[in-house]
Structure to design on (349 residues):
């Protein structure tokens, strides 16, 4: 009887935990789908649901055997993926550097792939010496990698959730973010954003009526005229009515794109919500930035060339984390605390 009561208590506790976390996730998504908080809650919800599933399965030998087989396959696929990932990142990084400009941002996939190969070797070498200094450094390095991995998991989860939720977001205006001109003309990457904006307007026209498109982008040092003007010409050439195209031609950054475009729309008497169109890898950060600026806008993205995506996505992760001071401070405290504890433990041994 006591054993049965204990099992029932475990299942009930796990169920309550799963319901609480899942409920918090649903509330958070309804409150603001742009918040990084949703990624944390989604990861925690998945963890509690898997815990509930594990407790339930453990009461049946058949289900437990089946679950073990499924877990073996899943972990095998994950293990194979982790072994191949560094090589794929290196190959993609080399391709990225060759096709695009040689910058730190474009080399992120290459650097990440090389680090994934080198760091395990460094950790093994540090642990092999078995002294307080190398042991402390090894623990600090491993703790830092775990923190980065968890933050990246949260970021991936949030971006996937957000992309799914934002695709049908309502809008009274669409803002297209500039991406630079090539020889004074709209390049393929920017043209893809503009096509996605036109499609977004068509998808929402029946229920929202006339939806203006803001072509947002200032003039770069190597550009003959502002990006916004070139984008507006492209839109009019493809059949968008001139009266439905607004030009924002002062911005130099994504933050200015959003702020100046929102100001332009408000001056024209066009209320929120707005829809921001950019590339798929950039949409979640653009949405987070709109949230920070107090603009009621969601963001969607057009597809990006596969070779370009890894470095661009890693660049977005770094940019988002750079603005998360609390998370960075908390991660630093965890790493420092583990290093101090390791040093004290090994020194006393």
């Amino acid at each position: 009887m006591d054993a049965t009561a204990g099992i029932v208590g475990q299942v009930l506790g796990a169920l309550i935990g799963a319901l609480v976390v899942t409920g918090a996730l649903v509330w958070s998504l309804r409150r603001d789908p742009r918040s990084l908080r949703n990624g944390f809650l989604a990861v925690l919800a998945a963890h509690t649901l898997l815990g509930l599933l594990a407790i339930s399965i453990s009461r049946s030998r058949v289900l437990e055997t089946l679950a073990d087989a499924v877990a073996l396959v899943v972990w095998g696929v994950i293990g194979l993926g982790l072994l191949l990932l560094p090589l794929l990142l290196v190959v993609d990084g080399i391709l990225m550097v060759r096709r695009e400009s040689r910058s730190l941002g474009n080399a992120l996939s290459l650097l990440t792939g090389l680090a994934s190969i080198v760091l395990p070797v460094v950790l093994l070498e540090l642990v092999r010496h078995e002294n307080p200094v190398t042991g402390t450094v090894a623990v600090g390095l491993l703790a830092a990698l775990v923190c980065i991995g968890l933050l990246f998991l949260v970021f991936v989860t949030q971006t996937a959730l957000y992309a799914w939720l934002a695709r049908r977001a309502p809008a009274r205006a669409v803002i297209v973010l500039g991406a630079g001109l090539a020889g004074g003309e709209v390049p393929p990457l920017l043209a893809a954003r503009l096509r996605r904006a036109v499609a977004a307007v068509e998808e929402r026209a029946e229920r929202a009526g006339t939806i203006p498109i803001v072509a947002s982008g200032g003039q770069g040092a190597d550009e003959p005229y502002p990006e916004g003007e070139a984008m507006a010409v492209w839109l009019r050439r493809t059949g968008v009515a001139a009266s439905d195209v607004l030009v924002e031609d002062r911005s130099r950054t994504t933050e200015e794109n959003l702020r100046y475009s929102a100001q332009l729309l408000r001056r024209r008497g066009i209320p929120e919500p707005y829809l921001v169109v950019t590339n798929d890898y950039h949409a979640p950060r653009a949405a987070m930035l709109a949230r920070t600026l107090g603009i009621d806008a969601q963001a969607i993205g057009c597809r990006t060339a596969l070779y370009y995506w890894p470095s661009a996505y890693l660049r977005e992760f770094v940019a988002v984390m750079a603005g998360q001071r609390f998370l960075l401070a908390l991660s630093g405290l965890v790493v420092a605390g583990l290093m101090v504890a390791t040093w004290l433990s090994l020194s006393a041994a």
About this structure: The chain has three domains: 1-59, 84-166+310-349, 167-304. The longest strand covers residues 274-279.
